[in-house]
## 1
Amino acid sequence: MRIDLHTHSSVSDGTDAPAALVAKAAAAGLDAVALTDHDTFDGLAEAHAAGPAAGVEVLGGLEMSTERGGNAVHLLGYGCRTDDPALLAELARLRDARDDRVPRMVARLGELGMPLTVEDVLAEARDTPSVGRPHVADALVRKGYVANRDEAFDSWLADGGPAYVERYQTPLEDAIALVRGAGGVPVLAHPWSRGRRADLPEEVLAELVREHGLAGLEADHPDHDAATRAALHAIADRLGVLATGSSDYHGLGKTNNPLGACVTDPAVYADIVRRVAEG
Ligand code: AMP
Ligand code: ZN
Ligand code: FE
Ligand code: FE
């Protein structure tokens, strides 16, 4: 069984509609896929509906924007009840903060000599409720200011970059509690990507597991090199938590992340599915 537990559709910042993503997962030889859009469940119904015809198991998920010590941390949640009031309220707060950030980013980019409008960004975001920096990047590409999303991030939009603008993100410990409270399984996304290693050393990961109920670490991810993957697998073993793997597929939005670029062990997937069923 080949299982990819972290993908994004056009309901957040990917480029495939949920049903198309599920069909592509089948074509890529996957047996199971989790849709984990940023801060929204809106794509899950379409993805679930597309599963049987494609012959792919679809696991409902999300990727929450969280922070710890002022640093951005992404939390995957699998199998959450999508009508949990506390979790839904927090996701709405996160999306409101995304909306609030757009005019501030647009103003900043104007100061940096790249005039564009909020409408330019929203045109790229289309029907997503979760507008993000990738949509700002797409607007910059369309204006001809940069060649692609990567250049937009590397030159301007990356955390701490010249056009970076902060937004509210849920404290990580609270996000773990919300996912658990909704019957979901919380797994830390790409824990050591892009300089996060210093913010999330083993002692911190251990505390998140023991005191807050973190259930797993996404060890195999395209942003992790071989040594990082091995180190995270070893930590997951020591802490007695799940080690997952996934592509973080974004369609055309991230060309280094094809579906199935990294995969999850079938026994780990079965464990997640069992925990979700137990609520
Ligand atoms: P936001 O959700 O608005 O904070 O934007 C973060 C999103 O941008 C994440 O989903 C990342 O996957 C994406 N991202 C970060 N760096 C890049 C990059 N170099 N190219 C494309 N997408 C990126
Ligand atoms: Zn994304
Ligand atoms: Fe992420
Ligand atoms: Fe992601």
Note: Residues 114 and 145 are 7 Å apart (CA to CA).
## 2
Amino acid sequence: MAATLLDGKLLAEKIRAEIAAEVSEFTRRTRVKPCLAAVLIGEDPASQVYVRSKQKACEQNGLTSHLHRLEGETTTDELLALIGRLNSDPSVHGILVQLPLPKGIDTTRVLDAVLPLKDVDAFHPENVGRLVQGRPLFLPCTPHAIQQILIRHQIPTAGAEVVVVGRSEIVGKPIAMMLMQKGPGGDATVTVCHSRSHDLPSITRRADILIVAIGRANFVTANMVKPGAVVIDVGINRTEKGLVGDVDFEPVRQVAGRITPVPGGVGPLTITMLLQNTLLAARLQTA
Ligand code: NAP
């Protein structure tokens, strides 16, 4: 029997409605509208699409968003000056710097300059450290999206064997950290694989929950998946056939128990978690 779809679009709509209600209540009570400042540098078409979707989601759910567009030739110091202005602007609650930044800009210096209280992507070392210690301020958006898919579909993580393929700072590492923490949506036994792992299929086949974030179209094949496993495909790859994930969807669907589609899986929820963090940032700065 084919796996059940974990529909990220549907879940995103549900959570966005919850957030919109909370935003409305917060604004009514405080007269403050949560505001996200998005910073986009250069002309990368995919980044333009992502930023536009994030702004649209803000507008549709009662948040404000401002776009700061800078030319590709912008220097690190110019970008740091903008971040400094946004940090000290009390009407801005969240700052999002769309990645990747053009070559020549020091990404680490830029991300380190965002005030931790406005760091709605949770990339600042203080927020990463808090996550590792199990006392997060903001949860990073894509890992939080993955965890919400598991929690909201009542997929048990406690004691589950989770395999994460990919060890990036924005997906692999933080989701591994979150799923191994104590408490709801955690308590899993987590293995992290990467490009130097030996015999990947023998590891991925152990997974009750397999999370793939590597950026390689259709990489995970049916023989790499344990029958009945939950498969979360984070990958977004542009191919001649359109957007595809890191998982070879149709064959894997015949083996897995539940699976996220691409598009319409993790992606819509990632933006939803950004809205949630912007609301949280506004709350923290208004308290
Ligand atoms: P990344 O920074 O490029 O990291 C890729 C990771 O995959 C690295 O750890 C790499 O290992 C590992 N890897 C690459 N080839 C491998 C192989 N053959 N076997 C095992 N591991 C391999 O990627 P990312 O930023 O995490 O993004 C991954 C994918 O998720 C991309 O398609 C991206 O577009 C997508 N994404 C989606 C969302 C969303 O909202 N849906 C959000 C973020 C990213 P090494 O460390 O050894 O190099």
Note: The longest helix spans residues 8-30.
